[in-house]
């Protein structure tokens, strides 16, 4: 039996639409074991159970098995611990896909190269930002070529920076958040996002905190998604007032990420008090980056 541990992620990081992602220190854990003839999935206590048809872990495992025409004799997968909230823009689907790929690889006796697992994961997820960060850890920039191959690189992050996640008690589906995006963009919007993404990579690596607010400005998705998230702009304004360096919508939303200093220990509790006093029922969660990514441990 193995334990598969997969982290939450935040994607886009403002202007890096569908290409930038960061793994966060919040995890789901699944136990996987080989059995004789039966195939089972069990949701643990407190886990958000879904039907077998909608179970993305099982669908991903089936995708891997079919790709290699592998006939699995039997397995048992149990959701041991689920801490990543669903439909909050924190990569719950990417974590399920990553878990499914790792579980399938284990049942196939660990025969898959890392590059193959990454490609299969992106095929299931549809875009590389969340799932590659989930699998490899840290902050990643990822590109899918015309043949479906994935090229990814690590993005340096200055150790002084802290990611603070602000999570509402409402959900937003990725499908709905993608449906509002335009089919085309102007040249000005293109230049805007390319220049901000380049500046963001430099600011993150060098700890140039004064550049982060400018670098996080986006025209590709946030202007279209913010109206779908009640009080999102108010929350971002409060983050700025409390002292964040910059804010962005986490993935498709509705969670918001504020970048601040690791030394600013009072930022999170002060932000929580401000939100509570404003009648905004959002949870403030300071998280470290997960540098390891998805992992397996023999039990």
| Percentage beta strand | 25-35%
Mean pLDDT value = 93
The CATH first-level class of the largest domain comes to Alpha Beta
Largest sheet: 7 strands, mixed
Tell me, briefly, the overall form.
Answer: globular
Q: Whole-number radius of gyration?
A: 19 Å
In percent, how helical is the residue content? 25-40%
Describe it.
- The longest helix is centred in the middle third of the chain and has 20 residues, at 187-206.
- The protein is globular.
- The strands form 2 sheets. Strands 1, 2, 3, 4, 5, 6 and 11 form a 7-stranded mixed beta sheet that branches. Strands 8-9-7-10 form a 4-stranded antiparallel beta sheet.
- The protein contains 10 helices and 11 strands.
- It has 2 domains: 2-155 and 290-298, 2-Layer Sandwich (Ribosomal Protein S5, domain 2), CATH 3.30.230; 161-287, Alpha-Beta Plaits, CATH 3.30.70.
- Helix 1 (56-67) crosses helix 2.
- It is of the alpha+beta class and 299 residues long.
